[in-house]
Structure formats: C-alpha cells, structure tokens
Design brief:
Layout lengths: L2 H30 L7 E7 L14 E7 L18 E2 L14 E2 L16 E6 L15 E12 L4 E18 L21 E6 L1 H13 L3 E4 L13 E2 H5 L18 E5 L26 E7 L2 E7 L1
Antiparallel strand pairs: 1-2, 3-4, 5-8, 6-7, 6-9, 7-8, 7-10, 11-12, 12-13
Length: 308
Amino acid sequence: MPANRRMLIVALIFGLIVAGAVFFYFRQLQQKAKVPPVEIVTVMTAAKAIPARTIVTEEMIAGKQLPKTAVTDDMVKEGKEALGKVTVSAIIPGEVLLKPKFAEKGARMGLSFIVPRGMRAVTIQVSASTGIAGLLKPGDFVDVIGTFQFPQEEEKTALDMSITVLQNVQVLALDTGMEAKEEEEGKKATLPVYTYVTLAVAPKDAERVTLLLEKSPARLVLRPIKEKVKVISQGTTIYSLIGKKPPLKKKSEAKKVAPEEIKWLEPGVPGLPPLSPTKTGEPKPTISKGERLVEIIRGTEVEKVGVK
C-alpha cells in the first residue's frame, strides 16, 4: 500500500475519533444544562373595561395562562373569586384581576348595592317602643302600622283608627349600619339603640310611607322568620278595641226643600193658601182677564205670574 494512501486512512480514522469525542462532549454539556418544563397557571383578566363600583358578571372576565413563576398570591385564579363582587376602582381591558380591587357586595360599597332590584330605600324615625325595643337587625322583616283620625261630621269629633299600612317589609339598615353586629364573647350584652330604620319598599309604597309619616308616627311590628303571609285588616277603632258598636247616626231633621215649588194663589177660594203679601215698593203683579195668579218659589226667590 502506498505511503500516501496509508497516511490518508490514518488521518480519516483520527478525524472520526475527534468528531465522536466532540459529539459526546457536547451531548454531556447539553444534558447537564437541560431546562425543566415550565408549569403554566390560569389567571383571570378583564375581557373589557370595567368601571368602578360595578358588579362583576361572567362576560366581563376571561382566562389567561401565565408561567407559575409570574403568578402572585393576590391574583384572581378562578372566576368565582370575582363574580358577584364589586370593583373598587376601574379596570382596563386585559388587566390581570387582583383581589384587592374587589369588595363584597354589601355594606362597604354603600346602601345602593344592597337595595333589592325594583325596590326603594326609605327611612323612618323610631323610638324604643315603636322600633321593637332595639331588637331589630338588618335582614329582618316587619309590618308598618299607622294611627289616623277620621272626622265625624255629625258628632263634630274625630275617630281614631290604627291600621296596617305595609306588610312583609325588609329592614336594610339601622341608623348608618347595614350589617348585624355580634356581641363580643365575654362582653356584657347591652340593649342596642337606634333612632332610624331604613326599609326596602316598592316605589308606590314609598309614597304611602311618606304620607304616613306626615300624618302619624310609624310603629314597626316584627314578623317571624320566613313568614310571607299577608293579613287582610280593616283597621281597629276605639269601639272595636273595647268590643262596642259605634253610636247610631242621628237622622237629619232638616226639611228637604224642592228646588222649585209652585203655589196656586186664588184669594177667597176654599182650600188654597192666601196670596203672599207684596213687599213694600214691589210692583203689584198684573193679570189679564181669564188668567190665574200663581206664585213660583225658587229657593229664596218668589215670583208672582199670571197663567191661563
């Protein structure tokens, strides 16, 4: 074998050996620097702009995947953590939802967020006796009673009547508090004191409450829990209270006078009334031959005319 050919074969063998060594060297480096798989976590973002003080609904939010290393504890990871809550500040589209930007629908966001849909909030002033002795709590249901005076024309007196104006009305707040307060353990219980009670009523009933407060103090009556039945009442007067019948109305003795009364006047005819005397200065009525004189009375006016 020629020397040149032998040297070529030896060089080729050494080249293969070097190439294999380099390959295995880089293979080992790659295995040492192997990156572990990235863990993905889903977080919630704003699907559109959400104004402040807005109740969050499903169409307002959307999911987005982020590396777990980029996710913080205050991010909203499930839709139920935001649905039904109220935004504290405005949120822009695509913004990752953060828990501090939401509040529970209720007291912290104001009374308007706890008024039932279609209802109105009205406030009445109460005392210990008219307000259930301080035992009411937000969420209770009450009836509202008022006392009125009805004039009695013939007796020239007024008849008092108490009647239930509203039934099954929800208590929203006491004074400025919209949440029931629990007594601290070990602390001596004291009677709560409140002066104003805010109720949820229908728009038409808000007008009735307004008129009631103009005419009478309102008295609240607490209803049992979950009782929805409404009672039909005609009200209570002093007579029904003591079990007696009201006195009978006196019949009017005033004589009914016809709007127009006609009297036939013919002096000297038996059975007919005499002619009314003519007032001083009043012209004497003139009648033609064959006519009779009649007196027409219209209320307080008297007219004498001749008729055939």
